[in-house]
Amino acid sequence: MLYICKLLNNKPTMPAFLNKAQNNMIVAETLIDSDILITSAHPAYYAAFLSIKYVLAHFGGMDYDKQEKCKNEKGSHNYLSNLALPLMSKLDTETGNDYFVWYNKLKKLRKTADYKPDDIEDDVLKDNLATAKSFMTNIESNFKTA
User: How far apart are the C-alpha atoms of 79 and 82, rounded to whole Å?
Assistant: First the structure.
């Protein structure tokens, strides 16, 4: 665990929320590698969610303060992910569809892991990490700041 702390204490060289997203990915990977599988669903999801906040702030004209103020009755996660969908879809239809499927898969598994007593198979949790990595790769390759 000390290794995680050293990785996370590096000074960010990128926008804050993308850095936070990458830190969550490091935590999810470390949990999987340490065979603490069910807990990995939480940071894997938050890697995706925080990267959405980054995309909206840097490419969607919605800075972080505005994101905090503009929530609807379904909560910030649904609201912000729905706002990001058109940005992802502008890349191409397949990317938009992947974004929607990947994000909802990560969110559903995080809710199950966090709030339900259900067991989740190890392979499903490992696949979840792969989904989060694909999501992050997509964000990092398509939405770069100078």
Answer: 5
